[in-house]
Amino acid sequence: MIEGILIGLETAFSIKNLMMVMIGCFAGTIIGMLPGLGPMTAIALMIPITYGFEPSTGLILMAGVYYGAVFGGSTSSILINAPGIPGTVATSFDGYPMAQQGKAGKALAIAAYSSFAGGTIAAIFLLIAAPSLSKVSLAFRSPDYFGLMILGLTAVSAFSAKGHFLKAMMMVVLGLMLASVGQDTLSDIPRFTFQNMNLSDGISFVLVVMATFAMSEALTIIFKANDPTRVAKQISLSQLGSIKLDKVETKKMVTTIPRSSVLGFIIGVLPGAGSTIASFLAYGMERNFVNDEEKLKFGKGSVNGLAAPETANNAACSGSFVPLLTLGIPGSGTTAVMLGALLGFGIQPGPRLYQTNPEIFWSVIMSMYIGMVILLILNLPLIPYIARVLATPRTFLIPLILFFSVTGIYLMSFNNFDIYMMIGIAVVATVLRLYDFPMPPLILAFVLGGLMEENLRRSLLISDGSWSFLWERPLTLIIMLIIIFIVGWQIFRSFKSKFTSSV
């Protein structure tokens, strides 16, 4: 391993590769800030550019764009409640409320520090344990993934305010319904398409996110224009705030970052999981770890609620390179594009990659840490300038949000139907928001719905229609026991609070 690290350092610290890291990080940060674009499109566009490069150089550039986008994607989530990439959706839950409270600079600083720490810790994990973790990835089967999806949905309690658990569950059902639209993956039979060909491929995740967060936020601002509380929020928006963190906030981050890094990295290692699921799970986990007083702050500007998903999505980004490099299995759409690029270079990722092409394997890992340092240096000085977006008058900001939302969706598919559907979903989401229905459970269910159905059907097929797959495998049984414990604990706490209040 020591020899491999030295090879990686020599390759990563060459002038050419350092330039590629810097270019990739800068481009990724800008791309991450633009809602709806995402790193996958940018990496796909860069593939022809990298054909003349060495495989390690090309992969370093694309990796820089990837984690740079994850790093920078939090900016639009925090400032305008329009997640730049799916992995930063959970960042908006507490990041945007902090910005509304006049703490935009502090929120961006917390996101930057958390992203750096999560990415760095994950890079160290990747350095030490990548070869052995490939065996862990191979150990996961469809029943285990199904259990993991159920575990993700049990986190819905983390997104519901006190007394709103039923509303959160209703939004979960709505999210699962939206996820079921489209062509059946096994039978190829259209479901809930209403004989509309535009729905045969299902509803885009980015479309749902942009509709339920960016556009609905803009519409909510318009509907509540005469609300006195909104006036107070608008006044506070001109106060950008400091980027310095006090001792209490630092202490909260120090306790949150380690466990979110570990969780994010483990989720990232699992093929098909990705940074989006990691950020949601980290958010839910963190809410269960904090005390009751801190729990009430979640969704209202919690430091823990902001640091957890930001740490996890960056750690998952680094972890996603484990199945890509050691197994040749892409963990997400972005790493799938990178896999195609590697095959174009004539490199076959797999268990022998770190033996046959050690310069590729180790240089990518080394470049990650370099990239994290560059991203921190790049983003922190720019925070005061980026945060000035909040000082933009609402009369200009709302049209900009709507413009970027519509343009981003149209550029993804070049289809007018997607625009009409986004507007329709945004109107429904706005009505639901006015009645205090939480949006995060809908997004979580929409993300997990398709994966959960796919793995459930595979599991039932393997077990010949029997539900015994839930307890036959030790790994699946452990996951199900964790789910039962979490649900039981939530029920117990609910009954305990009712008993205490009655007494």
Describe what you observe in this structure.
The protein is mainly alpha-helical and 503 residues long. The chain has one domain (2-502). The protein has 25 helices and two strands. A two-stranded antiparallel sheet has the order 1-2. Helix 10 (205-223) packs across helix 22 and helix 13 (274-289) packs antiparallel against helix 15. The longest helix has 36 residues, at 104-139.
Number of helices: 25
- The portion of residues assigned to helices is over 70%
How far apart lie the N and C ends?
A: 62 Å
- The overall number of domains is 1
Question: Mean pLDDT, rounded to whole units?
Answer: 77
Give the strand order, joined by hyphens, for the main sheet.
1-2
Into which percentage range does the β-strand content fall? under 5%
Find the count of extended strands (DSSP E, 2+ residues).
2
Blueprint of the fold:
Elements lengths: L1 H11 L2 H19 L5 H12 L4 H18 L1 H7 L10 H10 L3 H36 L2 H12 L11 H15 L2 E2 L6 E2 L13 H19 L4 H10 L9 H23 L4 H16 L2 H4 L7 H17 L1 H7 L5 H12 L8 H4 L1 H22 L3 H4 L7 H20 L2 H19 L5 H23 L6 H4 L1 H29 L1
Antiparallel strand pairs: 1-2
Helix pairs in contact: 1-19, 2-4, 2-19, 3-4, 3-17, 4-7, 4-15, 4-17, 4-19, 5-6, 5-7, 6-7, 6-15, 7-12, 7-15, 7-16, 7-19, 8-23, 8-25, 9-23, 10-21, 10-22, 12-13, 12-15, 13-15, 21-22
